[in-house]
From TrEMBL, chain A:
The protein's name: DUF3445 domain-containing protein
InterPro entries reported in the protein's UniProt record: HODM_asu-like
Origin superkingdom: Bacteria
Automatic annotation (TrEMBL), chain B:
Keyword Coiled coil: no
Protein name stated in the entry: Uncharacterized protein
Pfam families linked: DmmA-like_C (PF22289), DmmA-like_N (PF22290)
Domain Dimethylamine monooxygenase subunit DmmA-like N-terminal: 5-129
Length: 346, 201
């Protein structure tokens, strides 16, 4: 079924909203009434129709608007896209993977026709119809990773594997939860995770790295991450923190429903065939509290999760100023009934 | 001592002389001179005949080591008037360096970071460069907002030397930039920045 793409904004007048159907397919990340870091990885396999897991690379009603927002971010700050020179094979791997997955999952919107290394890519929602030579950089208007990630929802990092570690050597990062690709590029797994509290001591990163070093081609894995954002703003980069930071002080009991958003990242990890690098996809979903409480199970669960959060996580995720106000507002929707296991609506 | 436990900060292991290297290049800043002078015993005549010492005096403790360094009798000795001129010379040296060359860097963390960038630009692996921290704990900080780098930061917060925003100095270090990250401290409530504290002396 063709998706009706919305005209909306993630800045200025913030007209982004979820349709009722899109709320139902929201990847709510909590399978119980509390939250703590863990090595929360599971096979990235297709899920039920009508969920965000129906396809392994997900496109939704926000696609066109999100791609427009990415273009705006890149015009202001081209350093959000960077790739070190040795990553060219991995860039082509990524282009292939994203084109294939998007064309298979959404044939009414994307078509990939291959004839040897002559490829034709049609992206109907963005009005693109390009023919190029796979592997020949000069036949595309920009580098292959930039080309395809200007046409794919979510942020993307490619990590190179060497010396028993993973190195963040390329990325397109415009919809991030407060970290900088320009600062982190070239770092290894432990280094870029440096600022995360508690998880190092818990051994989470040691185990996660070991797991990823053995990731097999054709067996992608995924995990959830989440935080909260005031206003439906995709670009919550540290670069622009002085512009969006003041939003955090604007939350009142009267505007929680509209302003406060749950921000969920479905992160999938893919071993790439030619380069042996790993593609890390950070697909970001935003939903405001008015939308969240339309699902009774989520309305009960989310305030409980917020209550149990360790102080280190509250601070790291930047929730300090508005967590209590949000809990108070949400508590109206929590009748104290037990919640069912799992993340999906009842 | 540097604070430990910052995962992204390099560990500076100390200048251990690698006897089998075909060429030793020492880039020394200020008190970094003592990192080498303290290891005189490890420098035999063969090692010295293969050594090039580059030195930029700096700070009250780190000046006046020219003669002592020169007296080591290395193959080449260069006293640079500033860090910038030392780095310029280092670039030239590394451009013509051959296999088996070892680079040693000693001095403040900001200097190590800048000399390391030159090494990385010349294709050296960061893990093969031998480093020792000497001298002040001042940090080299990149403003994440305007990307300007401020040298010798001793306080947090401090005003960015480029865009002027009051910056918190985070414990997050980029080897590629040779700098810690500075983030606007009062973004959520402009004007609420606390008084600067002297943290990195
Ligand atoms: C190669 C793939 C990965 C990349 C590129 C990546 C990247 C990042 C980055 C850039 C951050 C933000 C750090 C900051 O504050 O500056 C982060 C946070 C984090 N990462 Fe990863 N990560 C990867 C895989 C994983 C895996 C497999 C785990 C599994 C446990 C994990 C767990 C976390 C956690 C718990 C946080 C803190 C998030 C929060 O509380 O908001 N990461 N990651």
């Amino acid at each position: 079924m063709a998706i009706a793409f919305k005209q909306e904004t993630f800045r200025d007048d913030f007209s982004y909203r979820n349709s009722a159907e899109n709320i139902r397919r929201f990847p709510f990340p909590f399978d119980r009434d509390e939250y703590m870091y863990a090595v929360n990885m599971e096979p990235h396999v297709k899920g039920q129709k009508g969920t965000a897991f129906e396809n392994l690379i997900d496109i939704d009603e926000h696609y066109v608007a999100e791609m427009r927002d990415r273009a705006l971010v890149l015009k202001e700050d081209p350093l959000r896209y960077q790739a070190l020179p040795h990553m060219m094979a991995a860039q082509w791997d990524t282009l292939e993977l994203l084109m294939e997955e998007q064309a298979v999952g959404f044939p009414e919107h994307f078509t990939l026709a291959r004839n040897g290394d002559q490829w034709r890519w049609i992206n109907r929602p963005l009005g693109i119809d390009d023919t190029f030579t796979f592997g020949d950089r000069s036949t595309l208007p920009c580098e292959p990773l930039e080309y395809i990630t200007r046409q794919a929802q979510g942020d993307f990092c490619i990590v190179d594997q060497r010396d028993g570690n993973l190195w963040m050597d390329a990325g397109m990062v415009t919809t991030q939860a407060d970290w900088s690709l320009d600062f982190d590029i070239g770092m290894n797994f432990m280094e870029w995770h440096g600022p995360v509290p508690l998880a190092h001591q818990m051994g989470v990163f040691d185990r996660a790295l070991k797991f990823l070093l053995n990731l097999q081609q054709g067996k992608p894995t995924r995990r959830f991450n989440w935080t909260m954002t005031i206003n439906p703003r995709l670009d919550t980069s540290p670069e622009n923190y002085h512009k969006w930071g003041p939003d955090r002080a604007t939350v009142t009991t009267g505007n929680v429903g509209d302003k406060v958003h749950l921000r969920v990242e479905v992160q999938s990890l893919w071993r790439l065939p030619r380069s042996n690098a790993i593609l890390f996809v950070i697909r970001c979903y935003l939903m405001n509290m008015n939308e969240l409480v339309t699902v009774p199970k989520w309305a009960r669960r989310f305030p409980r999760v917020l209550r149990t959060l360790p102080p280190e996580l509250i601070d790291y995720k930047g929730l300090t100023r508005y967590r209590q106000t949000t809990i108070d507002w949400l508590s109206k929707f929590d009748d104290g009934e037990p919640t069912s296991p799992g993340t999906f609506p009842d | 001592m540097l604070v430990e436990g910052i995962k992204s900060r390099p560990v500076y292991m100390g200048l251990s002389i690698q006897p089998r290297a075909r060429r030793h290049i020492f880039a020394l800043e200020g008190e970094g001179a003592h990192a080498l002078l303290d290891r005189k015993a490890a420098l035999d005549s063969t090692a010295l005949s293969r050594s090039e010492i580059l030195y930029a005096p700096r700070g009250s403790q780190g000046k006046g080591n020219d003669e002592a360094l020169r007296a080591l009798g290395a193959d080449m000795f260069f006293a640079a008037p500033t860090i910038a001129t030392l780095l310029f010379r280092l670039r030239g040296t590394l451009t013509t360096a051959h296999m088996g060359t070892r680079l040693y860097i000693a001095g403040t963390e900001g200097f190590i970071g800048q000399a390391m960038i030159v090494a990385l630009d010349h294709g050296m692996d960061h893990a093969s460069v031998i480093t020792e921290h000497r001298g002040s704990l001042a940090r080299r900080v990149q403003c994440v907002h305007c990307k300007g780098v401020t040298e010798d930061v001793t306080h947090s917060p401090f005003p960015c030397g480029h865009c002027g925003l009051p910056l918190l100095v985070r414990d997050h270090y980029s080897r590629r930039l040779g700098a810690f990250q500075g983030v606007n401290i009062d973004a959520e409530e402009p004007g609420s920045a606390p008084d600067p504290e002297e943290l990195f002396l």
